Amino acid sequence: NDCTNFVSQALHAGGIPMRKNIQPYDEAPNWWIQSGDAGQWLYAVPWVNADEFFDLIRNSTTIDGVDAGGMPENLMLGDIVSYDKYDDGSMNHTAIVTNTDDYYNPLVTYHTSDRKNVSWDYYVVNTSAFTSFEFTNIID
User: What are the start-end ranges of the E strands in 44-86?
Assistant: First the structure.
């Protein structure tokens, strides 16, 4: 269950800085992870939670993300696909665009059930519940 952590690490490795501030969090909520003194992982919730992460990339300036218009062809490397299993209004899974196929369809990579460069809709097709999705272009 580390899909969003994986995507957060990929975005950070791609140059998006962590944000760790003391309140207020209004426009730019925290997004960070670090090792604690006892070796445990400490983190801001949006770093690891799919729904909080989706809210962060769509509704804050911490990571600038914009709706890609529901069209997979609008996705580029480093963009995000968020999945809402059960279509209940809460994102449950996160993937990052890491490649394209021969027809320029986006391929994604994610953890939890590890997948590398699979079609963006692989999770939708292979999940037993109805699953909706949102595409986000990362500007930052």
Answer: 65-67, 80-85
Cis peptide before 24 (omega within 30 of 0): yes
Assess contact for 85 and 129: CB atoms under 8 A. Answer: yes
- Measured between alpha carbons, how far is 113 from 132 in angstroms, rounded to an integer? 18
d(CA 16, CA 129): 33
pTM: 0.93
φ and ψ of 133, to 5 deg:
-155, 160
28-56 pLDDT tens trace: 789 999 998 998 999 999 999 999 999 99
Nearest to 72 by CA among 123, 13, 111: 123
pLDDT tens figures, 49-81: 999 999 999 998 899 999 999 999 999 999 999
